[in-house]
Task: structure prediction
Amino acid sequence: MRVMKGNTILVVDDEAEIVSMIKQSLENEGSEVITAGDGRQALEQLHRNPDLIILDVMMPALNGFELCQMIRDEVSCPILFVSAKQKEADRIQGLSIGGDDYITKPFSLRELKARVAAHLRQNQRLLAGNVHRRVLRYGFLQLDLQGREVRIRQQSIPFTAREFDIMELLALHPGQVFSKDQLYEKIWGLEAVGDSNTITEHVKKIRAKLGVADPQSNYITTVWGVGYKWEAIPS
Amino acid sequence: MRVMKGNTILVVDDEAEIVSMIKQSLENEGSEVITAGDGRQALEQLHRNPDLIILDVMMPALNGFELCQMIRDEVSCPILFVSAKQKEADRIQGLSIGGDDYITKPFSLRELKARVAAHLRQNQRLLAGNVHRRVLRYGFLQLDLQGREVRIRQQSIPFTAREFDIMELLALHPGQVFSKDQLYEKIWGLEAVGDSNTITEHVKKIRAKLGVADPQSNYITTVWGVGYKWEAIPS
DNA sequence: GCCCATTTTATAAAATCTTTATAAATCCCC
DNA sequence: GGGGATTTATAAAGATTTTATAAAATGGGC
Result:
């Protein structure tokens, strides 16, 4: 789970075994984990500026709900409750007083990790966020024009500069046929001279890469005697 | 629930009664609710820019998981899955492919509302705090833009002026490729003339310094024949 | 004058682009 | 429907371009 790398997570629970179990599990994913055995200790740890807080509800002295209410306005990171109290009313209360998630004990470590990762991911999205990217999407295929990156089912596929240029041009004009000369002119520039085989070769490479990740698809169609075109809807 | 006022929520489910039930419930809280009966309709509704998406997993044509994967990179709002599939593996899958929450059917409307409100609240918190953010964080790396200081694992690393300029520009636009000419123009100024090797050299120095403190990471990627870009998620 | 950041130069290494040759597919006219 | 011509596909190798590295030169500030 790449998202968890480098993040600081505060785990608060009065049961030491649970704390150490969670700590170890999250550290395995690359997070830095700081811990507290009760609400007061947790308050002291806040100066470390955690990226996420996991909070047991039932603790002596200062319980999880109380702690959450105290810090919620000062701390903008997600707060996840973990509790043996399974009633719906408890879950709703936890979410209402400022919690972002509520997991009932006994819980699966894998689900805890998945939920922690999801919250961290969403935080990153919003923080690194306000990047309006131009992304072309055709089914499972995505062309990130600013990042010059191609993804199929979220998986990045390396394309060379020329390959990307050709794909971009075609995909920006779905359904329109481009002759090889047109492609050459648009991508290499007006004065450029070159063999039309060059295009053929690049198209072949593009198709090969797309074909590996998405075998049934046929994004680039050959229009015989004319050129190539991008299929509006991949088949 | 104050948070829900004025928000737009997209509800996607093929069972019309469920859609209308959720719609009514959320509208009572002050949200604007738009709906879709399947994945394709949902895609068409995305132009409305919802603040949150509720997604049924099992739908004909395009299921919730598939839809989520398709849109996750373009849509930064929270995505909540609602599903009759209750197995842990399903929940974890949903959270792993970009979902932010997973609620099993049959669900309590009150809990759904509480979870929706919690996600909206957290988004508002982050977006509000985003304005005066002056420290960029990428994994273990922190860029203090005000203090022009670079820290890895809390340890400060000295960077020269140009090095910091280049890093700052790249890191402020994660995922976007900058050509050497673009970098030169943005940092040295329009009229400046210079060798593109200068950039190469500075990038080398930056990578060397980052590499010492964080050997596995690769923050700046070479996009062959195009330029350099900052990885949103360091690999 | 010395130190440090910056830039330039030269060379090595890597990746890509283009060409060439050959095979396969498609079209068109008879 | 078949044969020849044309167009496109495939594969591999050479040429070219681009980037990485190292080291030396420049130039300003103390």
User: Anything to note?
Assistant: The first helix of chain B runs from residue 16 to 28. The radius of gyration of chain B is 22 Å.
